[in-house]
Amino acid sequence: MKTILHKSNTRGHANHGWLNSYHTFSFAGYYDPERVHFGKLRVLNDDTVAPGRGFGTHPHDNMEIISIPLSGDLEHKDSMGNTTVIKQGDVQVMSAGTGVFHSEYNKNQDQEVKFLQIWVFPNKKNVEPRYDQISIGEIAEKNAFYQILSPNADDQGVWIHQDAWFHIGEFDQGAAAEYSIHKEGNGVYAFVLDGEVEIGEQKLATRDGLGILETDAFQLKASSPSRVLLMEVPMN
């Protein structure tokens, strides 16, 4: 098994006042030639948006965009006619395809909203734009990895135009779980949302990331109560 470690304090950082953002991979004004992407995973932004503020209407195309709120309420509007709010426990996906405009604002005037903004390169270009969101409350499991995203519309979670699988694990201290790769040649980027875990010989803390390559499976053990996001993507 080969690994690539990204400690939380090595991420790119931009504080715009209304937006405090940490970039695992090169984004906007942050560029590191060694950290442009992990396979088809292009963007992993850890964003905090001030009360009542947000991203004005802007375009995207040919990208699979996933938003995972960690706290607060994020209001989404787009050129497909969707107006909705996503909150902790929801997962949102947007296939930008031939082109879409959208905005995202903190719906509340009295608290921040924190969310992960994730971009994945698609395996099909110029598809018809689409939007979906789910609540993961009914599929969440304790001390196990549960699937929140896949390539299959009839599978558990949301789906995207890519051979990618996302899972979340919520673990008590001392709990362990194994993850098996879905497709040969894929890698997994593990991102610790909260707590401390061990993957192989590597110890990870909150907001650390670990790229995992050249293996069919790996085991994670929680050193403290923890939540971890696994993003399995093609590496070429």
Automatic annotation (TrEMBL):
Gene3D superfamilies given in the database record: Jelly Rolls
Cofactor: Fe cation
Keywords, alphabetical: Iron, Metal-binding
Molecular function as annotated in GO: metal ion binding
Domain Quercetin 2,3-dioxygenase C-terminal cupin, first and last residues per copy: 148-233
Chain residues that bind Fe cation: 58, 60, 102, 104
CDD domains found in the cross-reference section: cupin_Yhhw_N (cd02910)
Pfam families: Pirin, Pirin_C_2
Superkingdom field: Bacteria
Cofactor note: Binds 1 Fe cation per subunit.
Pirin N-terminal domain segment(s): 10-120
Family note: Belongs to the pirin family.
PANTHER family: QUERCETIN 2,3-DIOXYGENASE
Protein name stated in the entry: Pirin family protein
Origin species: Fulvivirga sedimenti
